[in-house]
Amino acid sequence: MKVTKEYPNFSSGELSPKMLGRFDLSAYYSGCRRIENFIPQVVGSAQYRTGFKYVAKTAGNNPAFLYTFEYSDNLSFVLEFTNLKLRFYQNGGQVRETAQAITGITKANPAVVTYSGADNYSNGDSVYIEGVSGMPEVNGREFTVANVNAGANTFELSGVNSSAYGTYVSGGEVSVITEITTPFATDDLFKLKFAQNGVNLYITHPSHNPRILTITSATSWAITSHAPAGLTLSSGNYPVAVTFFEQRLIYGGTNNSPQTLYISKSADTGDFTVGTAVDDGIVYTVSGENNSIQWLRGTDKFLAIGVIGDVLKGTGGLDEVITPSSISIKPSNSYGVAGINPIGRGTQIFYVQNNGLILRSFEYNFESDGYIPIDRNIISDHITKSGIKQISFQEGRPNIVWAVRNDGVLIGMTIEDTETVSGWHRHITDGEFISAVSVSRDGNYNQLWACVKRGSDYFIEYMVDETEFPLFSDYFTGNKEADYAVFRNLMFEAQKQYIHLDSALSYDGSGYASVTLTPAASTGTGITFTAGGAVFTAGMVGRELWRKSVTGLETGRAKITAFTSSTVVTCDILENFDSSGAIPAEEWYLTSDTLVGLDHLEGKTVSVVADGGQHGQAVVVDGSITLDRQASVVHVGLPYTGWLVSMDIEGATQAGSSQTKRKSVVAVGIRFLNSLFCKFGTSYYNLNQIHMRTGSMNMDRPPLPFTGDRKEIYGNNSNDEIDGGWEREKYVIISQADPFPCNIQLIVPYMDVSNV
Known about the structure:
Blueprint: E1 2-4, E2 13-14, H1 26-29, E3 31-36, E4 38-40, E5 46-48, E6 52-57, E7 65-72, E8 75-82, E9 85-90, E10 93-94, E11 100-105, E12 112-116, E13 126-130, E14 141-149, E15 154-157, E16 173-176, E17 179-181, E18 193-197, E19 200-205, E20 208-217, E21 220-225, E22 241-245, E23 248-252, E24 260-263, E25 282-285, E26 293-298, E27 303-307, E28 310-315, E29 328-330, E30 343-345, E31 348-352, E32 359-365, E33 370-375, E34 388-394, E35 399-405, E36 410-416, E37 421-427, E38 432-441, E39 445-454, E40 457-463, H2 480-495, E41 502-508, E42 517-519, E43 527-531, E44 544-547, E45 557-563, E46 568-575, E47 588-590, E48 592-595, E49 605-610, E50 613-619, E51 625-631, E52 633-638, E53 642-646, E54 663-675, E55 679-683, E56 686-689, E57 706-713, E58 733-736, E59 743-753
Parallel strand pairs: 2-3
Antiparallel strand pairs: 1-59, 3-53, 4-5, 5-59, 6-40, 7-8, 8-9, 9-10, 9-17, 11-12, 11-16, 12-15, 13-14, 13-16, 14-15, 18-19, 19-20, 20-21, 22-23, 23-24, 24-25, 26-27, 27-28, 28-29, 30-31, 31-32, 32-33, 34-35, 35-36, 36-37, 38-39, 39-40, 41-52, 42-43, 43-46, 44-45, 44-47, 45-46, 48-51, 49-50, ...
């Protein structure tokens, strides 16, 4: 019997194996057996995640706990807590002091750096070097400063023997990495609690005096002990938790008094003196069993107190603020909490239950006119199997609650309560996720940052933004050929930017934001090219200058044959330019066939994407790889595989449900949005490659991302054995192992179903 079933929605995420028999529930048809390295969207599709871009090694190459400091839309930071150190990241990079120009580096043991500019180096400083010509071994690396000679403008690179390095030629910059010392050792980090008030971040730990982290500028931070009046802080009496509520700073729980709240005077974080006036400090001990305080969270309506056995609600009584004479702490009939920082979203509080295996949200319920705890992974109970150690909320489309598991797997829950969407997904990388947080980027959107352990190293990386592809409808003029030419070239330029590799680094030859390029002629050899700013170095001979083809009309490609100055080179034109006029900064590339700065991936086999096309794999040697051709935009990193696996296909027949009946899938229809490649099938051992290049595509470019429907018929493909045959359990598998986008909108299996 012929049966089809449409699966247009994956927003319920990865479901528990216990759900395999629950085809009576709607979640069965919007969920999957497995969603790995795919992210279900609120609208129902499933999107292959983007990669993580490498930023830096952690301080001392130690495990890091990440936290977010957000003062304003344009002043947001990721804080990297490591063993006794704190570093900072902003807008995609590590925070460093103003760079100084390097004028020389010796080939010696130890290496000696000569610099120009102010003498702002001290012994023990951590510095970062980049842009050096002739000695690539030092680029993209961190060093420790030793034996500073301010008079001679020199310092040593501690422990670095550069005798076998290349000979320094020119250029390069050195900058001091902004960092401060803290009292928090590695074992302390995941027990830290935080509360921010303007430029001050209050930090607690049961073994340390509370600290205040204060920002003056992006490169100026200080951490000080908090010693408020009216509060005795000593060993055994350091608070576990901290929050702000109704303009009061509140500490909660100590080893000696685990159920006690210490509440400051109103609008005075430096005074906890107890009194009877309405704005005086308060000491309040929560009664009852299992009420040891684990965390505090102030909301607009109440003070949430997470204790071992419940989430308590603190108020000042009916329509009143908290005062020494009006404070009420009541149970909420919730579940106990783990000592993990909760996250807030309006009046919602997401927290981990005390067993570490359940994520709950504490929120208002109109039917009961009260706050209730909602189990957020009740139909995905397996997803937290090793326990959760950190959670973070990423606001956007979609909204995602991220969680780091104890086994190093990153899991996420796509959530939109107004659309009753709640879908879990897992993310695997070549390594282990240690910590992850979301932070505002450029004041526009939230970005996920992570500390990842790869081998024996600890890296700071962030998840890359999705590529925004153009819509053909936006370029309609009535001339089909011209419209398609413009659209294809815009798509080509867009696809250069997608990154689906982990621990990735990129070369982007369009990085000359304000520099024009002017050829002296549009064709010929020995042609002078003049840049509107310092761009060129002697080492660029052999590289090429390309004009972007964003409209389908411009052309131009030239090879550099001689170096004159930082603004002038001589070229042979390989492909005629459309004119000899100045090319705007945003419309030309400087190509390269070498990517350096890959020391963090030394010895690793990496995948390479060059100008939007697969360039194969390479092994990183001496921190670099060499391509077999010039490219304008190159991405290098570690590959990962995405899996989207449906539940057992249900197709009603005249004999009832197809469940437990023998089935054979003869074809699969798939609707794609801006996707390339991927495999599909009904058996992990026989997956068929979907090729998306058409005969109309230029063969000198990679295939454009495909949007539309594909119906793949078993037996008509290159692999005639792809179908697993007649089986009682059938599900569709989509796999993406190539570093390209894959967005699945709809899956339609076509089946033959027996009556038995």
